C-alpha cells in the first residue's frame, strides 16, 4: 500500500521533498592529518595544502614531528599526509616503510632541489672546494659541522664516520634550521670558517654568499645532492579519501614559488598559513591545475569555493 502511494504521487510533489546533499567524501576523511619536520620549505608547502583543504571544507591539521616519528605515525594510521620525502637524502628513513607497504608515494611535488655540504665563498676560495678538503682545515672549523633538527643530519654523521675523509673527532652541531642559519650568518659576518647543510629551494641561496662542495655524492647523491621531493600518504588513504587524494595528486610546486613562499616565513616573519595564503593569492592561476577534478568536501565546485574563501 505504502509503495503504491509513493509511486502514484505526482512528480511535482516529489520535487518539493527536501534534497539531501551527497558528500564527496566519507566523514572520516574530513580531518586531514599532516606533519612536517620544522623545515621552512615543508612548513610552507604544508601551509599551502592546509589553506586549500580548509577552503574545500576539510579540517586540516599540521603537527611538527621528527622524520622518524612521521614515518612511524603514517604506518600506525596516526597521520595521513607527508609532503616532504626528499630523495635520496631520506631513502634510509623511508626504506622500511616502502618495503612493508605501509607508506605510499603519491607523486613528485618538486624537482630541481639539491641538498649537500656548503661553505661560505671565502672559505671555498681559501681551498675548501671538496668534502675531502675539510680535514686540512679542521682547526679553523673547530672540528664541527652544523646541521638542522636532530634526526635530520644522518648524512653528515655518515661522512664523519667514513675513514676515507679523515674526519675522526668531528661532531655535528644539531639545533634547527633557524638555529643553523643564525650561526652561519654570524660566522659569515665574522669571516670565520663554517661548513653546514645547504639546500635549494631556500632563501639562503640569495641571503648568503656560499658554495656547495663537491665530493658529497656518496652521501647526498650526484650533482650536489640533486633531489626530488615527493608527497606520501599512509597505506589506503588514496582509496579511502579519493577527493582529498585528487588534490594531493595535483599539488606540485617549483623552486621559484617555494623560494618566494619561504622568504615570507624567514625574512618577513609570517606564519605558514599566512605565507601560503599570500603566495596562493599572488599565483591565482595555479589553482586551475591544483583543483582539476577536485570538489569541496560536500561535492561542490572546488575553484569557486577556494576563490570565495580567499577573496580572489
What would a concise description of this structure say?
The chain has 312 residues and is α/β, with parallel strands linked by helices.
Architecture overview:
Helix content is 45%, strand content 19%. It is an alpha/beta fold and 312 residues long. The protein folds into two domains: 29-113 and 227-310, Periplasmic binding protein-like II (D-Maltodextrin-Binding Protein, domain 2, 3-Layer(aba) Sandwich); 114-225, Glycine betaine-binding periplasmic protein, domain 2 (D-Maltodextrin-Binding Protein, domain 2, 3-Layer(aba) Sandwich), CATH 3.40.190. Strands 1, 2, 3, 4, 7, 8 and 9 form a seven-stranded mixed beta sheet that branches. It has a two-stranded parallel sheet with strand order 5-6. Helix 8 links the parallel strand 5 (144-146) and strand 6. Helix 3 (40-55) crosses helix 15 and helix 15 (255-266) packs across helix 16. It is globular.
Amino acid at each position: 500500500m505504502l509503495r503504491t502511494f509513493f509511486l502514484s504521487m505526482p512528480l511535482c510533489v516529489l520535487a518539493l521533498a527536501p534534497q539531501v546533499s551527497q558528500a564527496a567524501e566519507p566523514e572520516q576523511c574530513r580531518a586531514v592529518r599532516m606533519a612536517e619536520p620544522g623545515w621552512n620549505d615543508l612548513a610552507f608547502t604544508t601551509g599551502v595544502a592546509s589553506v586549500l583543504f580548509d577552503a574545500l571544507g576539510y579540517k586540516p591539521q599540521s603537527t611538527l614531528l621528527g622524520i622518524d616519528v612521521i614515518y612511524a605515525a603514517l604506518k600506525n594510521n596516526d597521520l595521513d599526509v607527508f609532503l616532504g620525502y626528499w630523495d635520496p637524502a631520506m631513502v634510509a628513513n623511508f626504506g622500511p616503510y616502502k618495503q612493508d607497504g605501509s607508506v605510499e608515494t603519491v607523486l613528485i611535488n618538486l624537482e630541481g632541489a639539491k641538498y649537500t655540504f656548503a661553505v661560505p665563498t671565502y672559505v671555498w676560495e681559501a681551498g675548501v672546494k671538496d668534502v675531502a678538503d675539510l680535514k686540512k682545515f679542521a682547526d679553523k672549523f673547530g672540528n664541527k659541522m652544523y646541521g638542522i633538527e636532530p634526526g635530520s643530519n644522518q648524512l653528515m654523521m655518515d661522512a664523519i664516520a667514513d675513514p676515507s675523509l679523515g674526519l675522526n673527532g668531528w661532531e655535528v652541531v644539531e639545533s634547527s634550521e633557524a638555529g643553523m642559519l643564525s650561526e652561519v650568518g654570524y660566522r659569515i659576518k665574522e669571516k670565520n670558517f663554517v661548513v653546514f647543510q645547504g639546500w635549494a629551494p631556500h632563501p639562503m641561496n640569495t641571503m648568503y654568499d656560499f658554495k656547495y662542495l663537491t665530493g658529497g655524492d656518496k652521501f647526498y647523491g650526484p650533482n650536489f645532492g640533486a633531489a626530488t621531493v615527493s608527497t606520501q600518504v599512509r597505506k589506503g588513504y588514496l582509496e579511502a579519501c579519493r577527493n582529498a587524494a585528487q588534490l594531493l595528486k595535483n599539488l606540485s610546486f617549483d623552486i621559484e614559488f617555494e623560494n618566494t613562499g619561504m622568504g615570507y616565513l624567514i625574512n618577513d616573519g609570517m606564519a605558514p598559513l599566512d605565507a601560503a595564503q599570500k603566495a596562493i593569492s599572488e599565483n591565482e592561476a595555479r589553482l586551475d591545475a591544483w583543483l582539476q577534478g577536485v570538489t569541496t568536501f560536500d561535492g561542490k565546485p572546488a575553484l569557486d569555493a577556494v576563490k570565495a574563501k580567499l577573496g580572489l
